[in-house]
Amino acid sequence: AQSVAQPEDQVNVAEGNPLTVKCTYSVSGNPYLFWYVQYPNRGLQFLLKYITGDNLVKGSYGFEAEFNKSQTSFHLKKPSALVSDSALYFCAVRDLDNNNDMRFGAGTRLTVKP
Amino acid sequence: GAVVSQHPSRVICKSGTSVKIECRSLDFQATTMFWYRQFPKQSLMLMATSNEGSKATYEQGVEKDKFLINHASLTLSTLTVTSAHPEDSSFYICSARPTGDTQYFGPGTRLTVL
Asked: What is the structure's pLDDT at A98?
């Protein structure tokens, strides 16, 4: 079965600095990877996904993520953080080859300070 | 800890019948539960948010009479798809949230309507 790990419960960065939210995954087949964001009192919002193609995926709100097969990682990045980026971020993986259910990470709370 | 289960994991039903999906928080009390739907190769779509003991709040475009949600206890929420049609075939995911911001997701239920 597939699994996702987000090793950091919380990430703090200063506004204007680059940010990285880490995600590693484990699947037996080819992965289908997602990042979602959750703002307070809201459901998940889709940020970006990787299925195939370029390893660098660009998504909403200036976020991007790089798929690294050798490291089984899919870290979320943004060159310059905004205070409004403060939210809860979820990484998720689905095993395309085995059509397994989606698994989400536990979430990482990003706080961007002015 | 913080485990959310869904039952059944897969269900196949005939058109016109109703299907009930259960979402349980196994080791915590969930003041809020969310129901999501995922179409093939697409992101999650929030269907509704339910708070224990009160009526669910449905997202725009989601038919409340078709997707009945009950959150009768702090550990159980149910989604009933009434008079199911083939277009209701999808992957339904619930999540549960205790006090605080962290949201825990169930493994999902794949519904196929013939």
From this structure: 65
